[in-house]
Fold these 4 entries.
Entry 1:
Amino acid sequence: MERTQVIIPPQALERQRDFTARIAAHNAQAGKTPLALVETFGCQQNVADSQRIMGMLRDMGCAFTEDPRRADLIVINTCAIRENAEKRVYGTLGQLTHTKAENPEQIICLCGCMAQQPSVADKVRQSYRHVDLVFGPQALWKFPELLYGVYTQRRRIFSIDDEPGTIAEGLPVVRESSIKAWVSIMYGCNNFCSYCIVPYVRGRERSREAKDILAEVRELVEAGYKDITLLGQNVNSYGKDLPEPMDFADLLAAIDEIPGDYYIRFMTSHPKDATEKLFDTMARCKHVARQLHLPVQSGNSRVLRAMNRGYTREKYLEKLRCARSVMPDLVLTSDIIIGFPGETEAEAMDTVSLVEEVRYDALFTFIYSPRPGTPAAKLPDPATREEKQVWFDKLLEAQNRISAEIHQSYVGKTLRVLVDGESGDARWPLQSRTEGGRLVHLTGDKSAIGSFVQAKILDSNTWALFGEIEP
């Protein structure tokens, strides 16, 4: 991809700031502070996108609410990965017919991956006529101009052209936390896994310049952030399109040089591109957490080939052995899909056996959901939903047992944790995370929030640890 077509030029960004200023002036003249609601579905990249949308809205003079009935403007940022997420979005849009009826001046926007799909845009155009603005991920940086058009032209606007993916630096951001932060290092995907819609809605891979990433991380560390997660559809592909060679391991090493007391995490890593150099760099860096999310998706090589994943079961296990050889304390998580089209019971049980062999700390598990427009959606799928549920239950049973056993092994140990909030549980009022990302509920005073502390682990269950802060 030609880099000159990827980077949004300064004059184009200045044009958007001009539209932001016009909307801010309009809001100020109206004599009241408009309230905006931003609701996010899907992955951490969507969360990061929503934070930038909130940054633009803040600069337009908006304050924020979680009550759709009070909101003057609502933005629904959507996900297209799972069918269930789409159903929830349509349910939310249906509910907003009532808020729009109560407040006809309310502006409703639909954005994100789901909005980029032409079939979704057509459905919204015909069946959800109260939605005023629809735009995809590639048009996010133009949100001020699009919104200004809705205000001034009093018409519905759809911006879902199949345009090349872009990078827009310097967008404003509102971060909900002062402890944790997301930093996007790249956008898009080139892998075309046969079940996944992401390359079609987020475009091809494009990497941010290292200097911009380093400046953002440095600013966050200096502001006191303690837990920073680097984001990309496949962070292991970082840098392949940059004019100056730098791979993801090099980027981690450069970030690690930033002084401060903080953790760097990242997701998601594609197994086919996870290298020995990456594992060695993780082991050497003092700020990079010993945590790896490495989605396997299936434990059967034929299914992996049908998924277009680019590795076999054996190759995946070989990479894990390499990673654990240099990081014996590595916390390992993964994604798994059960019931891919054509998968047999025996092949699904290969995935269960892989889980037994690897002993993941935790899993994100899904029953296959067909995504229109992907190759997998056209494949024959003879297994019934009931059969797939039986396979899925066996997978959950194995992983829940393993997670419980691993967590039990921590009881009696003292761990360094970052206290990042309140839990809402009177007995264990604080919530924290270990370096490996394990959830630890703690006793103690909320004055500890935002600090690293030593925690004595007293109890555990399948999903979390429980402990007390040591003096």
Entry 2:
Amino acid sequence: MGRVETKRQNMTHAPSLSNKDTTERTPRRLFLKLLALLGSMLACQAPGLRTGDEPSTTTPSSTVAPSTPPPDTPTAQPTPENTPTSAVPLPHPLFIVDGHQDIAWNWLEFGRDPRQSALAGREEEENGLVELAMGDRTTGLPEYLTGRVGIVITSLFMMPAQRAYRNFKSQIFADSEEAYARGIEQIEAYQRLAADEPRYSLITNQQELESVVASWHTVDTQTHKVGLVLMMEGAASIRQPAEVHEWHERGVRSIILAWQATQYAGASGDAEGLTDLGRELLANMAELNMIVDISHLSRNAYLEVLDIYPGPIVASHSNPLTFANTDRGISDEAIRKVGERDGVVGIMLFNRFLNSEWTFDTPPGLVTIRTVVDAIDTVVQLTGSTAHVAIGSDFDGGFGAEAIPFGMNTVADLLMIGDALGADGYSTEDIEAIMNGNWLRVLRRSLP
């Protein structure tokens, strides 16, 4: 375990702001780009950061190198147990599990091909409508591989029609039939991605999970894969509770009952908790041992889920109220209960949910990697263990590089969190748990 003293930040109350409803864009685009680049350059000069050569991928040669290079370790032939024969130790964290991203939504709605480099994508999007709506892109295959992001729990997400971004209307829905159709489209997109790009792999069962994990147990970077676990963010695509069995057959392994209020539950900002249909949906999910994700749910809904759902429970991208002093944060009571249920709270890396005073006009430096470590430590102190906190970045979830902790530039920079935890006194074992082991425990307990 890391530090024993509890860290707290006193945040002033701020209005609720959805991470996919971030429309306060300013014309200061060039200024923010330069600040993000400067922060990344400064961070890469700090002691303890890793340097080396970019791993080769099947991405076109026009892509730009990611922001944080991979570990500089020699290759070695793996043993049958997938452990290196070289005396050179493997890096820590061995790989990262990110508990929440919206890969299909970004791809189908905004044209952000997940095989492409984030930095190359930025050049194509510069001064365009996608950049205006979403900010500077932070995710892409080269950055996943360079940053050792080995597994991403990625969503089926579509926008309610009344909340749709201006000029972007392909991944929206007005009713459950449209939501169902969008969900099928996104699953098929993930299937095409895994079929066309061998470095991506869908994870629907234990064998597929362990295959991806094994790919990272070697210093040979050519073996590394990015595994994708499908979750449904908002259950609007489930037309009636028993239909969850169909979605499970299609590969969905985790569900948030509401992003905006659904027939199943109230969402953040609502007073309503679970509905009778919501309780019925949970009963069907329990039969399948699916993961229930309480992120985005109303307080009344997530507290009832914690009381009645017998299966695995997580908060994939929800920060403590001390940091996200809005209805998108979760209470200390809920965090303790997630810990008691052997679940995981994923720390989300949108600046506004790490400091409620932050806005797009805030000078850089208010939110840093130090803030992320403090949020992690808060969950550690509340649960009494490093076993119940992880990363759920939500990168490219309605905000870009301008709105993530200062010093970070792309998803490759998630490695900085492990470095910062080590500098703060966390052991190698605790860092490994936070960066991948805790999510792996939940997945191993829930996957068929």
Entry 3:
Amino acid sequence: MTGLLLGVDIGTASSKGVLVDPGGAVLARFVREHAVSTPRPGWFEHDAETVWWADFAGIVADLLRAAAGRPLAGLGISGIGPCLLPASESGEPLRPAILYGVDTRAGDEIAELNAELGAAEILARGGSPLTSQAVGPKVRWLARHEPDVYARTKKLLMASSFLVHRLTGRYVLDHHSASQCTPLYDLVAGEWAEDWASRVAPGLPLPDLLWPTEVAGEVTASAAAATGLPAGLPVTAGTVDAWAEAASVGVREPGDVMVMYGTTMFLIQVLEEPRPHPGLWGTRGVVPGSFTLAAGMATSGAVTDWLRKLVGASFEDLVAEAASVPAGSRGLLLLPYFAGERTPLFDPAARGVLAGLTTTHGRAEIYRAALEGIAYGVRHNLEAMAAAGGAAGRLVAVGGGTKGGLWTQIVSDVTGLPQQIPAETIGACLGDALLAAEAVGMEPPRGNPIAATVTPDPVRGERYEEFYRHYRALYEATAETAHFLAGQHTAG
């Protein structure tokens, strides 16, 4: 099969699409921004119609104009996840989608399921500890707090599977996304854990399982009329955006690690076999038989953006100033836990700390300390991965934070590991198009070539060793106070 490939990704704050030729070259790209709804503290939602579907339809229209009538070979889709979108038998949304780990409403249900099923048993069977990232507790929250909605729910959808269903009529979910539905999925067996699912999601039919490299179905006549896509166009099963982005940069072999620099920091490491760790998420990968460990910091770019706004400067100026500051930020140490921390601490009440301040410090030292603090967090997560038996081999850095060079250099200096920087930073939608090529049986495109490599500096690395030791100790020393202060933030 020959023809152009489409890739569309639904993100937290924007959606992106690309048009790719059979060789993997990006011919066109489009972005649409949208907002997240936060109706209550700790709740994060998207309206599937006005965000997911509207963005998809608009981007597809842009891509089809760019294609100018040339034949299409396939469409790949990804989106934020894991999410919970309750839908009717016909696939119509019954309420806004409950988003991934940033939505913390199901804390009581997490504790309840840990007591009911056993935290150790959940980790061993599902590959991940129960956290706000998991779908299972949110399903139970829905049944308990919105029983009328749950009673009408006949489909459990995510961003990608919602679009797949609307385009093809198929009710499917890829194995990777399913493996983030803890405790509904058995990671080792590679199938739904029917006994646990019947207790956590009683009466809810679960979707058929496919791989992101498989075709879920073809665009129906009604979907073609609504979008302009040709009827019969193959559509992949889809997956979660970060894993599609990892596929876009060739992170597919055991030991490969993707480090995503963005509003949050996210890491994915490919494994040959499941290696559950209480401080990480263990999942299936994007190709049959593969497994991954994943880690995520609650804030990274969000901290640097907060600082930029606070001091009223541009990123370019702050990076230039911070680059002139020596390693260690002249005696500053920052804990970047401004919104709690996800892996490997799983401490939603952790808070940011800036230690060592004097009147001689300015915005340059503070900005560098923020970059260094985030780098220490990356090292902490990589060490947890190594402890699980997944020592990093090759690191590939992606995302907007790779621009400018300073941040990636600091991360390499702190970790002692080189990082490869790919030519394209457009993200998951490129991975979607490449997965679509694989799904329809095309010759694999060349992918996203490596444009540069960041090499660690051993002199700075030696200096960072002692700072890293104090970074780890600072959290332990301030955790009790941070938890007290976190409670004051909502005390009115």
Entry 4:
Amino acid sequence: MTIEQDIAPDLLSINGDMDKLDQVFTNLIENATKFTHNGGKITVKAYNEDENVHITVSDTGIGISNEVISNIFDKFYQVDASTTRRYGGTGIGLYISKLIVEVHNGEIWAESEEGVGTTSHVVLPK
């Protein structure tokens, strides 16, 4: 698996709690890593967008169906909640990430296609 970054050289600062925001991006990158197989790719991008900084974490992993993607930021939600599920986790990381982003007056969401990958978006005010 490869991890690439594309950070705008003129990226402006975000006024926020560095430890909490680090937790958000750690959660997003760990999820991307967990669901991307060997030979896959994860890309982290950050760029200025109007009065905000827009950060994306994209992967070429297993993806998430349209039927459940709106639930992934819910507390304790697991796409595969069966007792024989392949991927671990508590279902709380994305929920906590959402709370942290919202406290920073930002937005978080994900777009995905099964078998193609997922892109998580975080938009925070400059």
